[in-house]
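Hi support team,

I'm filing this because I wasn't sure whether my run with zinc ion finished correctly. The job status page said complete, but I'd like someone to confirm that the output block is well-formed before I use it downstream. Pasting the exact inputs I used:
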Amino acid sequence: MWGKRRKKLAVALTCADWRLHQRKVDMNARLAAKLGVDGVDLIAVPGPDGLLKPERASEWQTAVAQIKLLIGAHSPVVIVVLAHQRCAGHPVSDAEHDTDVAATAKALKAATGFSGPVRAVLMVYHSDTAWDLLMKETF
Ligand SMILES: [Zn+2]
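And here is everything the job wrote out:
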């Protein structure tokens, strides 16, 4: 391609919570920098690390289908499940977020058949405008 470098992209399954997406937090750009990619496609649902609960099976299937579409369209180099503490969509303890985000990343790798890395990432709460972005397990 003349003069057109193909963008290196990621796909993230993340939370819909506005606090992660506001300008002061800028989760998308920070995630792109940590992953070494040019951009991050987002699938945003309330409590992404709760999608393996039996009562959310249809939501899980929808998210998997949307992520498969983006894999086909954008050939991402990495997929991420990004959960956060104090999540209304999946109101569990900090320790449970640690295990649930890892389990969700592992299940997403299996469900999509994605050949590259699927990473678990956690946003650690300090205040509504201050979050640490913690890279966790890779599957
Ligand atoms: Zn949330």
